Amino acid sequence: MSKHRAARQRRLFVLDTNVLMHDPTSIFRFEEHDIYLPMVVLEELDVNKKGVSEASRNVRQISRFLDDLLSDATRERIEQGLPLPDNLSGNHGKAPSTGRLYFQTQRLSSALPDSLPGQGNDNAILAQTLALQALYPTTQVVLVSKDINLRIKAAVVGVHAEDYFSDRTIEDADILATGREPLAADFWERNGTDMRSWKDGARTFYEISGPTVAKWYPNQFVYEEREGGIEALVRSVHSNSATLELARDFRSERHGVWGISARNREQNFALNLLMDPEIDLVTILGPAGTGKTLLTLAAGLVQTLEYNRYAEIIMTRVTIPLGEDIGFLPGTEEEKMVPWMGALMDNLEVLTQSAEGGSWGRAATNDLLRNRIKIRSLNFMRGRTFLNRFVILEEAQNLTPKQMRALVTRAGPGTKVVCLGNIAQIDTPYLTETTSGLTFVVSRFQGWAHAGHMTLMRGERSRLADQASEAL
User: Fold this and answer.
1) Are residues 269 and 214 in the same domain?
2) Alpha-carbon distance 148 to 115, whole Å?
3) Which of 19, 23, 194, 342 is deepest in the core (most CB within 10 A)?
4) pLDDT, tens digit, 9 for 90 and up, residues 70-127
């Protein structure tokens, strides 16, 4: 690396192996800054290239990227740094990469402190970073790693280390859309002067103009917090005017869905999205006990068995255990997934408890429902296309954006995909609330006319569960 480039105050990022394994496009996401790959990182990539896991696939992808960059490079060009292409798709608003990629081409001498004994790979990366700091004193050298312990050791020895942030969908999970917005007390005074309304069958529409509606987006719910206030779904937004449709009320037993009534405003909004045939993708967030699975399953059953809108219900989830893994599970794909689908069985019990005919009637109803509900593993989703299916994806917060993209693109004509999860309960290493695939989908589909989102807040499982969520 030339000292002329180091004097230009660009930052030099030393990438740890786990960053490349987490996001193979990471080398293109540092905009105008330079990237340095130690030789030990290339060795670790070689060790992890075999396998069918997502990490192994990412290693093979980053190897292909590096091979393309090195395809016609000479030794001299490699030492001067390879220019990174500025036309990579998927940067999502980030500036194009104009920096250079440097490989370790010579031995750099840097003695680690005596407090770091051993010759592990992490220590070798730290040694390389310390050597680069000494070699380019006018350049800010930054070690980028997903490994918290490595970042701690880096701070101890005086190396500036950061987590990898470029895969964040949003900066803070608190700004993630909730899918609803209360109307101000003076909303109608400021926006209701040119309002017009009309009916289409049983549906009631309003067209409202004013300064407030410009920030709304399609399939967002707006409501008045007072008793008996309006609750409506934003159907379209054009400049400073919006078309609203009055939300259906599923709170009463007479208007329930498969015997299930909404117990609060957010559940009612969620059922409106789930029962709307014009909405192809629904995302529902919420802590345990808010009714995500029960509402979704009830909506799927009534649309599959009564309306014949869908051929069957497909349920799947990420298989991450809460405790120690119980080991090998015998049987077919569906039999292997049954232990992971306890939520399905629990909710089916609720949905069939009012079946007529006593225990025999409930057993017959359960058999009927199970014939129309298929349990599938995520491992075999690649290449599939679902036609006229109601697809329920549970525990979606444990999926990466790449996995979520692969699953949502399985939807064929007439299919509805419902993603359920709680981003505060992520069990996958290297995923956070801001990098989860569920957050990715909620953010990317916001504003699309055929997608809706709702965040449930109030637990309805039991008073014990509500108290446990707050106190424990």
Assistant:
1) no
2) 18
3) 19
4) 988 888 888 888 998 865 544 444 566 778 999 998 888 777 777 676 678 888 899 9
Distance CA 467, CA 432 (A): 26
Helices and strands (DSSP H and E) totals, the chain: 16, 18
Tokens of 457: 């807040």
Q: Are residues 272 and 414 in the same domain?
A: yes
What is the mean pLDDT of the segment spanning 268-273? 97
Does pLDDT of 409 surpass 70? Answer: yes
Structural domains in the chain (count):
3
Q: How far apart are CA 343 and CA 458, in angstroms?
A: 19
- Does residue 6 surpass a pLDDT of 60? no
My answer on whether 291 and 408 are in the same domain is: yes
Q: Where are the alpha helices (DSSP H) in 120-192?
A: 121-135, 148-157, 187-191
Phi and psi (nearest 5°) for 339?
Answer: -60, -25
Quickly list DSSP for 177-236: --SEEEPPTTHHHHH-TT-EEEEETTEEEEEEESSGGGG--TT-EEE-SSTT--EEEEEE
Which tokens hold the place of 363? Answer: 């057993």
More confident call, 235 vs 382: 235
* % of the chain with per-residue pLDDT over 70: 82
